Structure formats: structure tokens, C-alpha cells
């Protein structure tokens, strides 16, 4: 099989890349080791920056997003019952849109199908070869057979556990990470949200987040210990703890999804080697407190598509050569913001300790300072795509 760009992974990164290339007549093939049903139903992110929506608008894949997505103009940060609203509209004139990642993925896969972009599901990349030459190869297995994609470039869009990062020579990058001593228990429930905007809440029992997916479905999270287990959390216990930490009454509907996710910050400081380019979770993970993972993936892809389009249109490799540098500058900004939100909102130290009093002082500052609120607002809605060019 021969194509221009061989893409590994049909998550938001890989799908968006294929569609941006197709718009300019550049052929690609996506291989994805899971089934279509699996990737379309994987529950993950839910908050899209204005930038991300703009990229989807440009691809004409956002019709359902605009119909079903919920536009939010602010959010709340609470500290032991005291609430501070962050006004995105006032400080940035921008909004965010609540729309589930699995809906994004469905829309992108449908568009790929309609535009005849091949996606091979249940096809696992096993080896990426010759990335230092002009003819890289992706070796993969599909239906028990070994196959090869011969291409000009490889898009490593295969997530945190993928093959692309492992293919980079060890001495071509530095790795940075923090593993936090807490996780998130997340639920989806048929429950009418009793709040109009997201609530990030610090409570002495731990962090809680109230988000949503629609007017009838709530998405809620609780800080739990890393060694905790969903079996320890009955629906009743979850609802009671959420009400306590959020300080509001909730509609305690049927819980239909429950899972625990560890919290980590991770990145490498070089996202390319030869003709292999990494994007999205394959190169970085941010703790979800800043709602940035998917948005950062789309920002990487914007840069990568720009570089590849320039190469095919003019032969210039300038943008491709600067790809990693451009992405990493944004990644650091987003790492900082995600880490800041995580430390601001989670229970980390005993009440009354120096660390917890500093944390309280940060929150108190937030309630008196418009400058601090604006800083949070501009990071939360996201810097425009070419800010870090
Ligand atoms: P993905 O989505 O992991 O897709 C990678 C794909 O590659 C496939 N793959 C392979 N295919 C073939 N051969 C191989 N060898 C392969 N190895 C892997 C995988 O099956 C998969 O389909 O990465 P991508 O595209 O970079 O997208 C990243 C986002 O999915 C991720 O950053 C977000 O979900 C993070 N995230 C959030 N991001 C936001 O922007 N806003 C949020 O509100 C938000 N909330 C969240 C989140 C992530 C969470 N979890 C579960 C990690 C909330 C949670 C709880
Ligand atoms: C979500 O709706 O899943 C969500 C929203 C905001 C976050 C994290 C997750 O910070």
C-alpha cells in the first residue's frame, strides 16, 4: 500500500490530520488498532476551546457540534463553599463549547468516510522503519496478515501507549513527568445538570468537578486515592460525596459510566525525528483539570498540517523543520496551566499545613484580583493557534 502520509491512530489527532490534508488534495491512510465501535464510544474529554471549534468549522465537520454543543461563557472555582466565577466573555471575548470527545470522533470518522479517506480499523502498527530516509514504512497487522504502508511521512497520532514515541531514538529527546498522588473517579449519569456552568471545587475531602454533556446528561468527577477502586463507590456514595464537595443539590439520576483515571503530567521536548512526526497524547499528557488534552492535540495537528501542506505545495521544509519547536512552546504553557489548576483545586496536604494555607491564599487572591481571573480565563479558553509560531 502506498500513500503520501501514513497516519497511526484514529483518535482526534489522526482523524483531524487526515481531513486537513484531504482538503488540500494530499492523500493519507489511517490505521487504528481498535474497532470503529470502540473508538466511537470511548468516553473522555468534553470541553472544546474556541480554536478547536474553528479548526472543525474550517473542515466543515461541525454542523452537529453547533446544534448539540453547549456554549459556555464562564466557569466557577469554589473553595470550601466560597465561589468565584471566571468570566471568559469579559476577559477574552471568547467561549468554550461542551461536546463529548466521542461525538467529535464520530463526526470526524463520518467525514473521513464521506471524503473517501481510508481508515483501516483493527490494524496494529508493529514497526515504523526508515524514518531517516525519504521512504518511511509502517509495518502493521490486519486480520492476521502482515502488511506495509509505504509513505513520504508518518503521523504518530497513536496516543500515550503508542509505537511512535518508542520509535524515537532515546537520545533525541528529554522526558519530563509528574505523577500526582491522586486520581479522578468520573461518572456519566442521566441527570439534569442543576448548574449552568462548570464548577471546579476544592473541599477538605478532596476535589470535585461538575461538568455535563447535554441538558439531560451530567459528567461529574471526584478526587480519589490512586489505589482506590470503582467497587468502593456505590452510586449513592458518589452522589452524596459530590453534593458535599460541590455544595449544591444534584439530580441523582442513573449512573451509566464509572471509571478511575490517574493524573499525570508528561511531555517530551522533541516531537519529530526524520520523517516521523508525533502529535497529541503520543507526545504529551496533561492532567484533565485544565481541560486541555484534546485541544492541545488539535493545536499540534494544525501545525503539522501546515508544514506538510507547505511541503507539498512549494517543496519548502521550513515549517516542518520548526514543527516540534512550535508545538513544544504551547505544550509548556498548557502544562503550566494544567498543573496550576490541579494544585489550586486538589486536596494535597492536611488542612492548616503551610501548603494548604498557601493554596487557600491563592484562592483568596483570586477573589480579589481581576488580573488573576483574567490570567485563568485566557489560559482556559486557549491562546490563538499561531501564538507560539
Ligand atoms: P487518542 O485519543 O489516545 O488516540 C490514539 C489512537 O491510536 C490508537 N493506537 C494505535 N493504532 C494503531 N497501531 C498502534 N500501535 C496504536 N497504538 C495506539 C489508539 O487505539 C487510539 O485510538 O490520542 P489523540 O488523538 O492524541 O487525542 C488525545 C485526546 O484523546 C486526549 O488528550 C483527551 O481525551 C484528554 N482529555 C481532555 N482533553 C480536553 O481537551 N478536554 C477535556 O475536557 C478532557 N478531559 C481527557 C479528559 C482525558 C481523560 N482520560 C480518560 C484520559 C478527561 C479524561 C477523564
Ligand atoms: C469533561 O466534561 O469531561 C471535563 C470538563 C472539564 C475538565 C475536565 C473534563 O477540566
UniProtKB/TrEMBL annotation:
Gene3D superfamilies, alphabetized: D-Amino Acid Oxidase, subunit A, domain 2, FAD/NAD(P)-binding domain
Keywords recorded for this protein, A-Z: FAD, Flavoprotein
TM spans (from-to): none
Start and end residues of each FAD-binding domain: 2-338
Pfam families attached to this UniProt entry: FAD_binding_3
Family matches, as InterPro entries: FAD-bd, FAD/NAD-bd_sf, RIFMO-like
Annotated protein name in UniProt: 4-hydroxybenzoate 3-monooxygenase
Residues annotated as signal peptide: none
NCBIfam families cross-referenced by the UniProt entry: PRK08243.1
Organism: Arcicella rigui
Amino acid at each position: 500500500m502506498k500513500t503520501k502520509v501514513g497516519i497511526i491512530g484514529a483518535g482526534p489527532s489522526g482523524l483531524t490530520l487526515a481531513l486537513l490534508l484531504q482538503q488540500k488534495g494530499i492523500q493519507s491512510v489511517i490505521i487504528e488498532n481498535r474497532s470503529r465501535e470502540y473508538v466511537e464510544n470511548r468516553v473522555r474529554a468534553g470541553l472544546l476551546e474556541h480554536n478547536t471549534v474553528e479548526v472543525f468549522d474550517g473542515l466543515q465537520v461541525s454542523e452537529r457540534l453547533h446544534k448539540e454543543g453547549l456554549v459556555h461563557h464562564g466557569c466557577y472555582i469554589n473553595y470550601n463553599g466560597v465561589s468565584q466565577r471566571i468570566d471568559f466573555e469579559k476577559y477574552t471575548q471568547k467561549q468554550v463549547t461542551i461536546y463529548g470527545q466521542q461525538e467529535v470522533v464520530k463526526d470526524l470518522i463520518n467525514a473521513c468516510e464521506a471524503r473517501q479517506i481510508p481508515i483501516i480499523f483493527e490494524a496494529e502498527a508493529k514497526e515504523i522503519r526508515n524514518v531517516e530516509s525519504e521512504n518511511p514504512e509502517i509495518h502493521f497487522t490486519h486480520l492476521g496478515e502482515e502488511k506495509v504502508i509505504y509513505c513520504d511521512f508518518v503521523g504518530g497520532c497513536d496516543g500515550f501507549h503508542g509505537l511512535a514515541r518508542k520509535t524515537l531514538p532515546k537520545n533525541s529527546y528529554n522526558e519530563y513527568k509528574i505523577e500526582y498522588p491522586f486520581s479522578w473517579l468520573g461518572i456519566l449519569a442521566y441527570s439534569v445538570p442543576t448548574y449552568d456552568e462548570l464548577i471546579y471545587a476544592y473541599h477538605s475531602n478532596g476535589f470535585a468537578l461538575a461538568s455535563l454533556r447535554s441538558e439531560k446528561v451530567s459528567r461529574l468527577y471526584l478526587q480519589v486515592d490512586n489505589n482506590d477502586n470503582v467497587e468502593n463507590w456505590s452510586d449513592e456514595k458518589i452522589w452524596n460525596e459530590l453534593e458535599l464537595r460541590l455544595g449544591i443539590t444534584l439530580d441523582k439520576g442513573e449512573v451509566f459510566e464509572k471509571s478511575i483515571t490517574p493524573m499525570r503530567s508528561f511531555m517530551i521536548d522533541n516531537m519529530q525525528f526524520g520523517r516521523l512526526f508525533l502529535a497529541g497524547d503520543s507526545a504529551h499528557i496533561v492532567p484533565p483539570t485544565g481541560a486541555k488534552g484534546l485541544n492541545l492535540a488539535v493545536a499540534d495537528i494544525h501545525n503539522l498540517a501546515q508544514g506538510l501542506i507547505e511541503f507539498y505545495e512549494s517543496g519548502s521544509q521550513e515549517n516542518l523543520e520548526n514543527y516540534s519547536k512550535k508545538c513544544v512552546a504551547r505544550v509548556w504553557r498548557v502544562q503550566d496551566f494544567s498543573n496550576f489548576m490541579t494544585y489550586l483545586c486538589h486536596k494535597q496536604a492536611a488542612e492548616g499545613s503551610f501548603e494548604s494555607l498557601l493554596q487557600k491564599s491563592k484562592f483568596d487572591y483570586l477573589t480579589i484580583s481581576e488580573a488573576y481571573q483574567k490570567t485563568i480565563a485566557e489560559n482556559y479558553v486557549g491562546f490563538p493557534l499561531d501564538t507560539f509560531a
